[in-house]
Amino acid sequence: MALNKNVSVEDFPSDFAWGAATAAYQIEGGWDMDGKGPSIWDTFCHSKGRVFEDHTGDVACNSYQLWDEDLKCIQQLGLTHYRLSFSWSRLLPDGTTRFVNPQAVAYYNKVIDDLIANAVMPMVTLNHFDLPQALQDHGGWKSPEIADVFDSYAQFCFKTFGDRVKLWITLNEPSVCAKLGYESGLFAPGLKEPGTSVYLVGHNILRAHARAWHSYNSHFRCLQGGKVSIALNSDWAEPLDPCCPEDVAATQRYMDFNLGWFACPVFGTGDYPETMKARIEAQNLELGFAEGERLPKFSDDEPKPLGTADFFALNYYTSRKVKDATSRPSELSFTGDQGAEAIIDPSWPVCGVSWLAVVPEGLRKLLKYIKETCNNPAIYITENGFSQIGPVEFEDVDRCQFYQDVLQQVSKAITADGVNVRGYFSWSLLDNFEWSDGFSVRFGLFHVDFSSAELRRTMYCSGREYAAIIKRYRTYNKLDN
Ligand code: GBH
Asked: What is the gyration radius of the CA atoms in the chain, in angstroms?
């Protein structure tokens, strides 16, 4: 089947970021090498029955020792930007600045210097799910002290790497961290405390992020001139029955409970969405909680989250149809509070994992929604991708078509909807450790042969496709001469 090639590279601004993304625990391996402390994902994977076939990130793509191979992949794609995350417990083994691991500093210095020597801008996420275990032992994201500890870690990173790193993401996907880590327990630390911890965790993440942004703003921005944000993931949602007012309201609640939970405090009103506060209050009454319980309030005695992002960092994967669920018996859970059921439209193709319905046009609609509800921010799409499962297909035509389609949607958002999209990062550079799915799900532009000792990287057809788009863009903008 011939590909429908439709990306018009001339629609993208001449300083657009063409990137790919990874995360430390998913690629690095070297889980206890050179003085690294354990993270909650080390603990989680080492206890049986948590992850698909008990896979672990002990070795993963071994990027800790094979960074040179990753760099070759980045060069082959012609990326202008690379998004990576630091392993907090590699840099600070017990999570605090009491002890700094010099070998970790040397490793990330080399990565950053090599990127810059190749004219690739690093975008660094300070923490992508892998909280130091030592901090989990003190309550992790449930502990109010975590905001200060994170701030110290962030300041240490700004001080050490900020002369060269100009794009920072404090934390990745707070809603996933809170919901999967503390509500469903599918991700580390694996706690199942539905309807309660999820809001406390979300709150402390916002507090931690706000502190780090303020630290950057007061002590580093002037000298280093970089930008700081937090990566928020969101589905795009539409009512199952657009003529049913309850479904329409439920759809707004779904957006508010997922995106608005973090976007409203940072980009909007400075507080949680009204729909969220109202539903949780109503449920509190029904379930015998006191007024104001469960969803914390922002205190006047510390930095507020409003305005603490220099751009919008969006991770988009999929879309949902939404149906009202408020008439169901009250249940103590995040979904119960949300009062909305999310459904995959049967006409949408699903790639690899069951949650990933492929809806490229949802990205364009979501970008427009963010423009309209978040004050027209500069937006980097910090993750977006397509997975494969089962026998490896090097000629991954569906993924090739996906990148064509999704980038066409981004170009329409820019040209037709006037959204200020500044960059696009494919998830992911490499096949890697896909959290609770282990190595069974492959998101890479490069295949990694996990059965070979060398962990050989081989470009998929979709990698060539993405490289060709970037090449056309570079030629059009005369970036290579
Ligand atoms: C991203 O999250 C992560 O940032 C990245 O590390 C990851 O590799 C990538 O997705 C691909 O998965 O098991 O039914 O409860 C995207 C948001 C949230 C989507 C969790 C999948 C699990 C659904 N993800 N969700 S379920």
From this structure: 21
Give residue 162's pLDDT. 99
Q: What whole-number distance in Å separates Cα of residue 430 and Cα of residue 455?
A: 11
Q: What percent of the chain has pLDDT over 70?
A: 99
Please, what sign has the CA dihedral across residues 158, 164, 166, 169?
Answer: negative
Contacts of 391 (CB under 8 A, 6+ apart): none
pLDDT value at position 5?
A: 74
Sheet with strand 340-343: strands edge to edge: 236-239, 319-324, 340-343
In the reported structure, the alpha carbon of residue 460 is separated from the centroid of ligand 1 by a whole-number distance in angstroms of 22
- Give nearest CA residue, ligand 1 atom 24: 176
Q: What average pLDDT score do residues 446-473 get? A: 98
pLDDT of 1 higher than 60: no
Is residue 37 within 8 Å of 99, Cβ to Cβ?
A: no
Q: Which entry of 28, 183, 238, 383 is annotated as an active-site residue? A: 383
Pocket test for ligand 1, best of 180, 381, 387 (most atoms within 8 A of CB): 180
Nearest CA residue ID for atom 12, ligand 1: 434
- Tens of pLDDT, residue by residue over 121-173, are 999 999 999 999 999 999 999 999 999 999 999 999 999 999 999 999 999 99
pLDDT at 91 over 60: yes
Q: How many angstroms is it from 427 CA to the middle of ligand 1? A: 11
Q: b vs e for 286-316, b when ≥16 Cβ sit within 10 Å of the residue's Cβ?
A: eeebeeeebbbebeeeebbbbebbbbbbbbb
pLDDT at 294: 98
For residue 8 the two structure tokens come to 């018009």
Compute, in angstroms, the gap from residue 456 CA to the centroid of ligand 1. 25
Residue to probe by mutation, ligand 1, list 129, 341, 388, 427, most atoms within 8 Å of CB: 427
CA 351 centroid distance within chain: 19
CA distance 93 to 274: 40
In the residue annotation, 393 being an active-site residue is answered as no
DSSP for residue 289: P
Of 435, 437, 441, 448, the residue with max ligand 1 atoms within 8 A of its CB, to mutate for a pocket test, comes to: 435
Model pLDDT for residues 424-453, shown as the tens digit of each residue = 999 999 999 999 999 999 999 999 999 999
Residues with CB under 6 A from ligand 1: 23, 172-173, 176, 180, 186, 233, 315, 317, 355, 383, 427, 434, 443
pLDDT value, residue 197: 98
Q: Is 395 a catalytic residue?
A: no
Instruction: Tell me what the pLDDT averaged over the chain comes to.
Output: 98
pLDDT score for 122:
99
| Average pLDDT of the residues in 229-233 | 99
- For ligand 1, the distance from its centroid to the CA atom of residue 230, given in whole angstroms, is 16
Give the residue from 178, 173, 182 showing the smallest Cα distance to 203. Answer: 178
Alpha carbons 164 and 112: distance in angstroms, whole number? 7
